[in-house]
Amino acid sequence: MQAVKTLGQFIIERQEDFPYAKGELSRLLRDIGIAAKIVNREVNKAGLVDILGAVGNTNVQGEEQKKLDVFANEQFIAALSSGGECCGIASEENEDIIKINNTVSKNAKYVVAMDPLDGSSNIDVNVSIGTIFSIYRRVSISGDCTMEDFMQKGTEQVAAGCITYGSSTMLMYTTGKGVNGFTLDPSIGEFCLSHSQMKTPDQGFIYSINEGNYVHFPEGVKKFIKYCQEEDNATKRPYSSRYIGSLVADFHRNLLKGGIFIYPTTAKSPQGKLRLLYECNPLAFLIEQAGGVASTGFKRILEVQPTDLHQREPIFIGSKNMVKLAEDFMAKYSPVTA
After folding, report:
1. What are the φ and ψ backbone dihedral angles of 284, each rounded to 5 degrees?
2. Do 20 and 46 reside in the same domain of the chain?
3. Domain extent at residue 100
4. What is the pTM of this model?
5. Residue 2 in domain
6. In the beta sheet, which residues pair with residue 210?
7. Dihedral (Cα; 273, 279, 285, 290), 10-degree rounding
8. Which of 195, 218, 236 is the last residue in one of the domains?
9. Could you tell me if 180 and 242 lie in one domain?
10. pLDDT tens digit sequence for 289-332
11. In this structure, are 156 and 87 located in the same domain?
């Protein structure tokens, strides 16, 4: 029988992945894992307690907050604040950065950007949802964190990951040396290594996009969708259309099976819909480490310079060949300055 390796054991064994850290980043990842287990517990019993539905407020994005959104946000903030390894947090649910200025955390080396509960519109219908997180080494010297600590390109991430709460709960993360996945074993309450050195196929046969917005898509995206729908035995087309509407779930499936997820600019969202810091960048880091590509349609996502905490960007993410082909369609039919 293969020995079980927990997330905590794996992180300890991989200390060489953190050349300038002395255990801080390891403990930070551990804190995220603990918060994920608490959120998972509430997700799994959501239909039995008064935690589904809306709280009657909207977040900074203008989106209606769900009870689980608020709960997840509070749990991750609490875990990161008490752990002592993080001096600041940027969350989808909060307008400004959260400065953790207690004695332990004030001079910590890292900041975290997160979407505590992605796919919240699916909460009430029992569809997979998730958490996305991104970790940066602070650039300010000491004391309270600053906005400058968060305005770093995605190439500066030291770690990133996501947690999928579905038929099983899985955490995958990268520190720039591959992607490893851990599935939660509820019998022992631990994330156990289940997917070592994950790789996404260079060519996939799934495209994921909200085709209800087709009329508002750039011409390059429309042409690419038509290409995916055409019949061609040599390229195994038509491709399958699979769209859950929960970013983490769509990303998770396409990473494992191969495919492309697209959320382009639209008339309603001329800058794109997904947030750069805590959605696009961490997933781009993951997919690149798994052998895939993440693009705005014109340039590498990780090279986009953030200028706003809740900055939005279009995204084309997934199997290398599919993303590169989509970029070709964008360059030919929607030529704009990236």
Report:
1. -65, -40
2. yes
3. 7-195
4. 0.93
5. no
6. none
7. -90
8. 195
9. no
10. 999 999 999 999 999 999 999 999 999 999 999 999 999 999 99
11. yes
